Amino acid sequence: MPLSSTAAAGALPGVAIISSNFWPEPTGISQTTAEFASFLAARGYRVAVATAMPYYPEWQIRQGYRRRLWMREDIEGVQVYRAWHLVSPRPSTLTRLLHEMTLCVFLVPQMVRAIKRATVVYVVSPDLSVAVLGLWVARVLGRPRVLVVKDVMPDAAVDLGMMRHPVLIAVSRWLARRAYGSATIIHTLGAGMRRRIAALNSARPIEIVPDTIDGDELAPPAPADNLFRAKFVPPGTFAVVHTGNMGKKQDLDLLLRAADRMRHDRTVHFYVFGDGAVRDEFLQRRDDMHLANVSHYPLQERSLLRHMLAGADLLLVSQLAEVGDLAVPSKLITALAAGAMVVAACSVDSETARLVREGDSGIRIDAGDDAGLVSVITQLRHGSVDGRQYRIRARAFAIEHFDRNAVYGRIVEELHQLAYA
Question: What is the pTM of this model?
């Protein structure tokens, strides 16, 4: 695109971000996308975001955002343009489709507002219809386009059994090919994800850009100052914690089965913090199993996160075996940075397993292995596994590989090359 006089003079390029999820949604893609936007805004870039009314992981539009078709707000110097969409607290294939369709319809004018003053556009997937539409609008307006793939779709939905209809699968694969082909550059989280994207479109550059952490924000507090332990954990209790999205791929039934095995040991308690599509099912199954050793709480304030991660005697990161290399959970990287004692229940060839193995920063057990989880709990309690060394290695590994300034510093260089090439 031709350079304006301000661009030629070296002004910082404007950035637009198109994403179906954004802050104040507290988990996953919304969190990491907001961190990227805030990073750029804090360094003087003009950042505009086109996104949905916040609805995740509760699957209902939040108070303060309801009964509006469009709205604009400022979040830490980022201009956020929001659009209404249909959403159901009990998501199904049909309601998910209606969610994406209505969001596409109402988000178009907000996309134009965000993009018109931008020099480079970042489009965040996994919502393929929103991604394809955002890439098309950016292309019509003549902007370079970076597609940020956080989950490989539709592979994730197909492999997890969330999408079975052959027509829907075919349409979704077509959308994925369109998205990959419309991008100038593609970013994704891991090598396995890159291989899957390349299988559909190898013509575009595909770069691995991991999620990031702020080491200072996640510095583990001294045990005596741990607010999580003081608020939630009785003295002498071994706390097993799962926090974040409660979706199908998190396989929370693993935690319930482990709790069932340990129901008579009153010194071990399981804590789940979060919300999501399977929350009600999880709570119903817990109650049906009469598990008094499992507690559920809403997601806590961000300021308590490092206390929770560091204060857990065991931090569980669980995935269905089918997830494999389809995704890299941002919660894992955050947990490592906080010096958590991570136990990852996942397939041996998954991106999660690779990260844990590469940093020797936690213990991997097979996906769904509740007996294995109980065994690790027992070993940690009895001191036959040195959790302290895992915690030290975890934090060092996260700071070395996922520091926000280092990762996004490289992306900023690429941003300027795209803007002023």
Answer: 0.86
